[in-house]
Amino acid sequence: AKQIDIINTNPWGSVAPAAPSCSLADVMSEQLARQLDEENNAFPTLTDPGADLLLSGEDPDTTSDLMLAQMLQMQYDREFDTQLRLEERKFNGDSKVSISFENYRMVHPYEDSDSSEDEVDWQDTRDDPYRAEKPQTTPRKGFTGKGKNITTKHDEVMCGRKNTARMDNFAPEVHVGDGLGMDLKLSNQVFNSLKRHCQSEQRRSARLHDKKEHSTAEQAVDPRTRLLMYKMVNAGVLDNINGCISTGKESVVFHADGGSLEEQPVPDEVVLKVFKTTLNEFKNRDRYIKDDYRFKERFSKLNPRKVIRLWAEKEMHNLSRMKKAEIPCPDVVLLKKHILVMSFIGTDHVPAPKLKDAMLGSDDMRSAYCQVLHMMQQLYQQCNLVHADLSEYNMLWHDSKVWLIDVSQSVEPTHPHGLEFLFRDCRNVSTFFQKRGVSEAMNVYDLFNAVTGLNITLRLHSNMNEDHVQRRGKKTFPVATDDGGPPLKPDADD
Ligand code: ADP
Ligand code: MG
């Protein structure tokens, strides 16, 4: 009754009648249930791009997320470095003494700077700031001062300060704070363990950077290349990069969906041939390019990474020559540094088989041989080129036609080794088609003559065996020797 009284005398007016008794938990769970129900109905909506995936219960495809994230990180790192470089320049100005921000960089080294400056051992070579400010050396005798104020080199306070000062020599990413300002004194034990920690961090970071620089087998290309590829997608030249078709010693080939370019149409399906920047693979291929007069001049001036770009460029030029002669080969879409984008030979993401893998009936095989013969003649006579790596590995069978690929190493016949390369090509072609039972297949010498239009004759004695022919051949034709010459290149993925 007292309570009713209170309610009735409530100066703010009457209170609404109390709701039927019901526990808070009930109310909550009911509300929650309704809310959940609503949410389930409201999401996903049809305008939501992931909606159909979620509705059908499939996982959205996130396979490229990691790559994207890495690319974004890479781009961020590089932008950071560019900014850093600007600041470094601003900071140093015209000063004769300059300070390097090198250690703050995210990506090592800057693009195209091939300087492999030896790492400076900062622990030993940088000046001790404490000493510089206030020269204070411990004399030989091991103590300074007199009487009561004597300090030995083992003096805790002095040692502690010195240790604090030496912390400034730690790598820049180690935030040591203003120990000096705070008059912080570090014991030797603490200092040493900090130092050890920093050194191991440095090594770890170096390893990380190392991983960044060198491509791993699964990721196939280095971050720099991934960024370039990402930029192509970003610019709309490509819609999507789907996957790797081939990983060879010298290149990695990706399949991609074509996007659009302003001046020219981009095919629906394209390949990206990425020339590998791991330099040593290219060492033994140098002679294909350094003696090619078209590239000779530039070759000698370039650093090794830029030479890789020449390979891509060379393939592009050679492909366009072939296109002019109407030899079936990929169309060049775009060249970007060491990445060549060209049309895809194949259908619906399935690349055309190499001639060595194509299961051809005897008619098709004979037709393939005739095409190859004709193609070699066109290449030599119209394009003024020698393939220099012609074999069943670098010819694809598509639409009942033989398509010629992999022409980055092709040279003009006047190349110092031009005819030698051509002879090797002929040998590969003859051997392949003869083995596949094409009776029309000429022997290597006849083929060589048929391609070049030359008439080099070789008198054969009937009692000569293969070896003799081979040896005779070596005298008559310039043939790659086993020691100096580049190896016959069966693709590394086989
Ligand atoms: P490498 O120098 O590594 O041998 P290639 O140009 O021969 O490079 O390419 C390697 C492989 O990639 C080829 O054997 C072929 O299977 C595939 N490939 C290359 N270019 C194309 C293309 N335009 N269309 C379809 N597949 C291709
Ligand atoms: Mg090849």
TrEMBL record:
Coiled coil: none
InterPro entries, per the entry: Kinase-like_dom_sf (IPR011009), RIO-type_Ser/Thr_kinase (IPR051272), RIO_dom (IPR018934), RIO_kinase (IPR000687), RIO_kinase_CS (IPR018935), Ser/Thr_kinase_Rio3 (IPR017406)
Catalytic activity: L-threonyl-[protein] + ATP = O-phospho-L-threonyl-[protein] + ADP + H(+); L-seryl-[protein] + ATP = O-phospho-L-seryl-[protein] + ADP + H(+)
Composition bias, Acidic residues: 112-122
Main location: cytoplasm
UniProtKB keywords: Antiviral defense, ATP-binding, Cytoplasm, Immunity, Innate immunity, Kinase, Magnesium, Metal-binding, Nucleotide-binding, Phosphoprotein, Ribosome biogenesis, Serine/threonine-protein kinase, Transferase
Protein location: Cytoplasm
GO molecular function: ATP binding; metal ion binding; protein serine/threonine kinase activity
A Pfam family reported for this protein in Swiss-Prot or TrEMBL: RIO1
Start and end residues of each stretch annotated as Disordered: 110-150, 469-494
Root EC class: transferase
GO biological process, any: defense response to virus
UniProt biased composition (Basic and acidic residues): 123-134
The protein's required cofactors: Mg(2+)
GO CC field: cytoplasm
Subunit structure: Interacts with CASP10. Interacts with IRF3; RIOK3 probably mediates the interaction of TBK1 with IRF3. Associated with 40S pre-ribosomal particles.
Similarity comment: Belongs to the protein kinase superfamily. RIO-type Ser/Thr kinase family.
Protein name in the entry: Serine/threonine-protein kinase RIO3
Organism of provenance: Myripristis murdjan
Gene that encodes it: RIOK3
